[in-house]
Amino acid sequence: MHADKGYDYDHLRRWLRKRGITHRIARKGVESSTRLGRHRWTIERTMAWLAGCRRLHRRYERKAEHFMAFTAIACTLICYRRLTK
Predict the structure, then answer these.
(1) Running DSSP on this structure, what letter comes out for residue 30?
(2) 3: which strand partners?
(3) Do the beta carbons of residue 56 and residue 19 sit within 8 Å?
């Protein structure tokens, strides 16, 4: 997981480590977060693609399970479109 300085908390680092999630979080006052920008564009691009899905953008669903199902469908469609290009 890549994150900027806004997520530099010890309890968050411990939580990620306990779950076996590899993280790269810029430290406050020590490390420049510009190096994380190399990976950030993929996240920003994906979020922009998901924002194009009206059902996700407006969040009509009340249940989290339904919202996550539509998110999975949207991600599948995005991958399908990218693979068929």
Answers:
(1) T
(2) 25
(3) no
Whether residue 55 contacts residue 70, with contact meaning beta carbons closer than 8 Å, is answered with yes
Structure token pair of residue 73: 């469908």
pTM check: above 0.85: no
- What are the backbone dihedrals phi and psi of residue 24, each rounded to the nearest 5 degrees, phi first? -135, 95
Rounded CA-CA distance 63/11 in Å is 29
Per the CB < 8 A criterion, the answer to whether 58 and 50 are in contact is no
- The per-residue pLDDT for range 33-57, each reduced to its tens digit, is 566 566 677 777 888 888 888 777 7
In the chain, DSSP assigns E strands to: 2-3, 24-25
Q: Which helix (H) or strand (E) holds 41?
A: helix 37-51
Cα separation, 49 vs 58, in Å, equals 14
